[in-house]
Design goal:
heterodimer; A: alpha/beta; eight-stranded antiparallel β-sheet; B: alpha/beta; six-stranded mixed β-sheet; four-stranded antiparallel β-barrel; about 15% strand; binds guanosine-5'-diphosphate
Amino acid sequence: MFVPPPANPEAGSGAADLLRITTAGSVDDGKSTLLGRLLVETRSVLADQLAAVTEASRRRGHARPDLALLTDGLRAEREQGITIDVAYRAFATPRRAFLVADTPGHVQYTRNMVTGASTASLAIVLVDARRGVQTQSRRHAFVASLLGIRHLVFAVNKMDLVDYAEAAFTAVADEAAAFAARLGVPDVAVIPVSALHGDNVAERSPEMLWYGGATLLHHLEHVSVGGDRNPVDFRFPVQLALRPDAGFRGFAGTVASGAIRAGERVAVLPSGVETSVRAVYESGREVAEARAGDVVVITLADEVDVARGDLLVRDQNRPLVGTSLEAMVCWMDDRPLAVGRRYVLRQTTRETPAHVTAVVYRVDVDTLHRAPTTTLSLNDIGRVRIETASPVSFDAYRDNAATGAFVLVDADTNATVAAGMVRGGAAMVGRADVRSPATAGPDTQAPGTPRRSEAPVSPDVVRDAPGVTRAEREARQGHRGGVVWLTGPPGAGKSAVAREAERRLFARGATVLVLDGDDLRHGLSGDLGFAPRDRRENVRRAGEVAHLLVETGAVVLCSFVSPSRADRAAVRARFAPGDFAEALVTARPETLRARDPKGLYARAAAGEIADLTGVGAPYESPETPDLVLDTDALSLDAAVEAVLAHLAARGCVPD
Amino acid sequence: MSAAAGAAPRRSHLRALEAEAVHILREVAAQFERPVLLFSGGKDSIVMVELARRAFAPGPIPFPLLHVDTGHNFPETLAFRDWLVGQTGATLHVTSVEDAIRRGVVQEESGPEASRNSLQTAVLLDALASLRADAALGGGRRDEEKARAKERIFSHRDRTGQWDPRNQRPELWNLYNGRIAPGEHVRVFPLSNWTELDVWLYIRAERIAVPTLYLAHDRETVDRRGTLLAVTDHLTLLPGETAAPRRVRFRTVGDVTCTGAVESTAATLDAVVAEVAGAVQTERGGRHDDRRSEAAMEDRKRAGYF
Ligand SMILES: Nc1nc2c(ncn2[C@@H]2O[C@H](COP(=O)(O)OP(=O)(O)O)[C@@H](O)[C@H]2O)c(=O)[nH]1
């Protein structure tokens, strides 16, 4: 009657992992065709499906099967010949399984791109080789970066229509790479393809021998994507309590991030009650550990009050808990956002009534400029402040998407009206636990992972919404505020570049200030030395000061050695992507030693300074700086002009 | 490369799909008052029951199973259903199309090619209403058919049970919006992101029992325009049709009058996995009624079919 359990249960279950992808492109760039091509090449299209498409193509008078029909689903869309919603497709190779969220190219469907990007680790942006990086492609790339996607692939399509010419590709590729760099996406690939003919999709193109890179499929199979979840900060949103009998009380949920073992101390948020983990179960079996992404049941040592919507965390590593937060949101409903209207905020497993107290600005997704506004309409993206009726436990989205993401639901229609990403909110919210910065140090931090961006704040401090907004200040002074963070070893020329840039900006009427390591250490950071913890705190304070100044609309040039990548990432995380740029100022070691303006290298050589950066202490170069100023190669004038050009592109220089 | 040092290792794709489905099942248990799990006896609903067992262990599955019985069953399906219910201790509701015909809720199509699929829709909605179900869990997968590829995991149905493909709620991250007005319900598809091959790989890896219909066996079948239909009491042969014994297996087990078999020698799970991995036909390709028009599935979905 039944199939007996097989003898060999493990065979073929495969170590292949799952890569979630989102695709986007302007209408007619060939996205559906490319996707259809990927399905065909990976043999994910079966004979009857292909037959149906061939037949439909023939009826429409096409000579060959129109592969776009494989992925264009609904009849209404087929009639219009365009894709209108998010469709999900699976295909697999022996190395990897892929899930693609295919989103449409209409101008008005930003909301679908946001939806598709919310679950993806990699985005493929289609570009028509003849037309270059259009507004729509920029928009897609921006949305991907906003949603925290770290891997971007520009597929430069229709190479057949530009005679497979290298020059045509290079022009588009440069444009794409430059734009991606502005967005701060760390991993960008640009690949010339012809979706129609299959060139460089799965097979190397015989027409483009000048291209030495990987095919699209090879790239997708081999791109190394770290775990999507933050491995450090343990967060466990309780989905539901299980009480099968009086003897068992467990809490079911998915580990959002981090890991926990039996015996470890935890706190229940928002109540703050502490207890420890008694045991962890997976599918009813006890296991040693629960790690990010695991679906488990956790039992606790004490009979504490825990319900759906609560968050279990380590007692020493807590998120923010509060009723005010700042977030970027994408508006997804026909009815525009109404300040003061009641919405339901759904974050992790928690639901709470909420209202928007202020719309700070709207982002023009094509230019990345911000405009002050009072509402957001369908497909708008902007920054808002939100008040919730009950406390929410959250992290900045940038650090932890699982606890930084939320949706707003209209309480009357039950429609999902907005997708939100918490920017932070430390400025607005009291922390659940209050620790001094020294003990708050993220000692468990993995190197290279950005730390929580929220600065520690004093207890019970809830600031009022500011009266005069940054946008108003910027409008009056005629330029935007922003930070250029100059990092590099002592003697590289950071301060010289910063001072000269300050002088020239001032001359052009900008509000500008240099924050310099030496200045800061004579005052605000006079209490700190050069141990890693002190350096971190110094950098943090500099970042906070810069943040305040940017809120006044100023251009801030920060000149700090700031050797730790993680410390710099924490500062960056305090700013909106367009507000912060990292400039690496560098020179050869011989040059540094020869310049030695403060005699530091000489003193280090004499053994007087043990921990000089670059000598006794490490300097971690930025992996993807926005600017590289090699002062061996560049004159001071050229380096300063590079900084000014960068600022001008961001609207930070008066006209 | 940018992978953060110390990042968690990536889990295998079956583990990732399993975790997603378990998370969804728990969301349903938490967000709704009276969910039901639609149980067809097919491999997808068998996997669903197994996932539900895991999601709530050591507790029981906290919602009943609902079987819409077309009256055109394979005997193996019913026997397996009853065995599985006994194994899991789940509650089973059966609603019968035959009964609904007798009660006049629906009217039987006539003729040799009559299908009960359209009736099934009405009977299902009737049963959901009488159970006052606010969520119905189904085993639908996005790889089954083009129309499904766009469907949300939490798929909202209006008071008449209709799906509006042009007005679906955006679905982001793993934040599922199950809020509904009274009288409405939500269809939930935890296996949305699985493929047919994933289901088989999971059945094999987790040693999940399935009915023998899925393995190659000898059976009297008739070839009706390319679909191999099993010869049973419910099937009327058309003029000129003759039954012949064939070695076949089923890729779906639904209504015997329209579920096509495929010729196959795959008599073990390993062989089935190998066959599915190299398959050239979609499993729904074996479903006679889907052939009626290119957009058949979409029309049925709009009307509330699973
Ligand atoms: N010559 C050429 N045409 C292409 C290529 N890729 C797509 N097309 C054509 O461009 C048109 C739009 O393609 P489609 O995939 O529907 O675009 P989508 O709107 O981005 O999904 C169709 O006529 C395709 O056949 C290509 O690589 N080369």
